[in-house]
Amino acid sequence: MLGIVLSVILFVVLSTGAQGISNNPCSPCHPIPYGDFDQYLDILEIDSRTQIPTSINKDETLTISLAIENKGNPGIYETISSVSLQLNSKYDYFSVNSETYYIGDMPLGKEFAEWQITGRSDGYDTILIRATGINEHGFSQFSDSYSVPITVGSPTSSPTPTPTPTISPIPPQTTPPTSTPKPTVTPTPTPTPEPTSTPTPEPTNSPSPLTSPTQTPLATPTPEPSTFPNIFKIMLIIAAATIMAILVYFRNNIIKKKRMENHNR
């Protein structure tokens, strides 16, 4: 219980601030014994020019101002280029006139950015601010962020950030019971007595091969057509013989007539 209370307190403290400062991209190439170069892009949460409201009415317009600093010991490559800051609403309860504030080239020292926000509807929201830039020496990239909770109008519900820290430790405790349903006798649906229905008398229909006596092609009287040409041949032979006999007959008669004529002479 004490751990949960401490985590809630830590969450509330951190939710009103940023990541603190950007990374130091000089360190990989210039460690401390060799040059001791460092450079940071830092959103100044505590500065006389940093003015961020924590509440706003519906349809009210307020100005947000923010200080940012290029600091460190970068040597001769001190300028951070393409510096820009972006301000957004996390839950869309307020609007921003222009979300991106562009600074451009930024030497060592401070710069300032301004936005105007307008309340849209009642609710608990969070102002999200992010600063980015690049040092062209090694194309080193810088990034810093900052977030501030803000109340818009007169919301009736409690702030949304409060339940978030308490819920995070709960899910790991719920995971072990989820393993218990695993031994739910899932193999129970394996009552495979269904295959007992497999000896269905369907295979007994196999006597269908009895119909195989369709071997009628064995009785194919295909040789019958062969007898026709034989009969035709015989008929042709008989006709030819008959014609020959007739021709012989007429020939003999002609010969006889000629002999009789010769004899009469």
Brief descriptors of the model:
alpha+beta, Immunoglobulin-like, five-stranded mixed β-sheet, four-stranded antiparallel β-sheet, 4 helices, disordered N terminus
What does this protein look like?
- It is a single chain.
- It contains four helices and nine strands.
- The protein is of the alpha+beta class and 265 residues long.
- It has two domains: 11-168, Immunoglobulins (Immunoglobulin-like, Sandwich), CATH 2.60.40.10; 234-265.
- The strands form two sheets. A five-stranded mixed β-sheet has the order 2-9-8-4-6, with no helix packed on it. The protein has a four-stranded antiparallel β-sheet with strand order 1-3-7-5, with no helix packed on it.
- Strand 8 and strand 9 (140-152) form a beta hairpin.
- The radius of gyration is 55 Å and the shape is rod-shaped.
- 14% of the residues are buried.
- Mean pLDDT is 75; it is low at 1-19, 162-178 and 206-214.
